[in-house]
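[Q] Does anyone have a clean structure-token version of this?
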Amino acid sequence: FHLICCFIILENIFVLLTIWKTKKFHRPMYYFIGNLALSDLLAGVAYTANLLLSGATTYKLTPAQWFLREGSMFVALSASVFSLLAIAIERYITMLKMKLHNGSNRFRSFLLISACWVISLILGGLPIMGWNCISTLPSCSTVLPLYHKHYILFCTTVFTLLLLSIVILYCRIYSLVRTRSRRLTFRKNISKASRSSEKSLALLKTVIIVLGVFIACWAPLFILLLLDVGCKVKTCDILF
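[A] Here you go.
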């Protein structure tokens, strides 16, 4: 697991450096991709810290330290999901206009990225701010002992709805691409529009692959957390 985390960290550092050093990538779409890479990078760091502070070390942690350990993972996960949503929205707008956004939209992009991190920090910090089960032990999670089951249900519901929205957006984008392609075949002067369409389609394929991998990797955790919420204490062997 440590090797996997190191690979994730190095891979996303490479993505960030590539975007930073390549001038043609200084566009809103690539800012969102960079934000996704940053959130995945932090997820790798947070999971590495989680591994190092697990086992016998867990019993030496104060509640606040435990919340910081687990909360960092929720912050990184939230930022990843919101980044994917921002990318889907940007792709949808791009396919509607059939052109890449220019610098006039950079402020809006940075505003969305800032909002992504503010919301993620709030969502991940809710337990340390009071939404926990320290005073109501029967409501505690089995997988994440100090987390209230209602908080886990809330987070998994939010993430699931966001991912569902992203899938719907990409279905709509795919429909737009097919419609545009059919229209372009009946035109004579299509070189410029065709190049724009090819660029958008290439980015679309890449992001869909990223989304598919993200869902495949995180779906088992979501299912486990939902089982945790639905099962009474010591009734589901899979949680132990």
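[Q] Thanks! Anything notable?
[A] Residues 191-230 form the longest helix (40 residues).
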